């Protein structure tokens, strides 16, 4: 039985498709929905390197990026929560700052006692999928709860 669904969203058409599918599912099951947005953090991320000798990042610029990311996160969450309310689905929003999106998603699912994670996938295969990777693939590989993968094709239907 599904009681709580975690839906990672990023403001893209793909995450909108995942949200739409999760709203349908939650409505049918009477489940609660948590929309979740991971704000990027590039500090301490192993796959992001800053090159240059003596490079100093202006703290004010860093703070501006953080504020812009927080404002974007709140905007995305607010829109999703409005959709849930309009469809009669009990929902809450959550966000965090993390350099590793898939780890943040997995931690949120556990912390919030979610029974299911519903998220979108680009559906990349072959070399593109291997080189680019996928947060969805990483979540699938490490999740302790079922993951409902919403294919990219559904995003096209959302317009």
Structural commentary:
By secondary structure, the chain is an alpha/beta fold. It has a single domain (10-158), classed as HUPs (Rossmann fold), CATH 3.40.50. It is built from 6 helices and 5 strands, in the order βαβαβαβααβα. It has helices at residues 13-29, 59-86, 101-111, 126-132, 135-142, 152-158; strands spanning 4-8, 32-40, 91-98, 116-121, 147-151. Strands 3-2-1-4-5 form a 5-stranded parallel β-sheet, with helices on both faces. The longest helix has 28 residues, at 59-86. Mean pLDDT is 84; it is low at 44-49 and 128-132.
* Total helical segments: 6
Order of helices and strands: EHEHEHEHHEH
Q: Level of helix content?
A: 40-55%
Q: Provide the number of structural domains.
A: 1
Task: Could you tell me the CATH topology label.
Answer: Rossmann fold
Report the uncertain regions. 44-49, 128-132
Secondary-structure arrangement, i.e. CATH architecture: 3-Layer(aba) Sandwich
Instruction: Report the C-alpha radius of gyration, rounded.
Output: 17 Å
Please state the overall shape, judged from the principal axes of the Cα atoms.
globular
Distance between the termini: 31 Å
Mean pLDDT, all residues: 84
Strand content: 15-25%
Quickly give the structural class.
alpha/beta
Strand order of the largest sheet: 3-2-1-4-5
The largest pleated sheet is described as: 5 strands, parallel
Query: How many beta strands in the DSSP annotation?
Result: 5
Name the CATH class: Alpha Beta
């Amino acid at each position: 039985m599904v009681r709580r669904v975690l839906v990672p969203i990023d403001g893209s058409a793909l995450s909108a498709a995942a949200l739409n599918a999760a709203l349908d599912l939650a409505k049918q099951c009477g489940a609660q929905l948590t929309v979740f947005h991971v704000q990027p953090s590039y500090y301490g991320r192993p796959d992001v390197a800053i090159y240059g000798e003596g490079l100093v990042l202006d703290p004010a610029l860093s703070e501006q990026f953080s504020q812009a990311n927080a404002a974007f996160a709140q905007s995305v969450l607010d829109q999703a929560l409005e959709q849930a309310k309009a469809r009669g689905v009990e929902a809450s929003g959550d966000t965090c700052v993390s350099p590793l999106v898939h780890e943040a998603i997995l931690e949120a699912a556990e912390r919030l006692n979610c029974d299911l994670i519903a998220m979108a996938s680009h559906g990349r295969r072959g070399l593109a999928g291997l080189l680019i990777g996928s947060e969805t693939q990483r979540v699938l590989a490490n999740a302790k709860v079922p993951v409902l993968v919403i294919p990219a094709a559904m995003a096209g239907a959302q317009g």
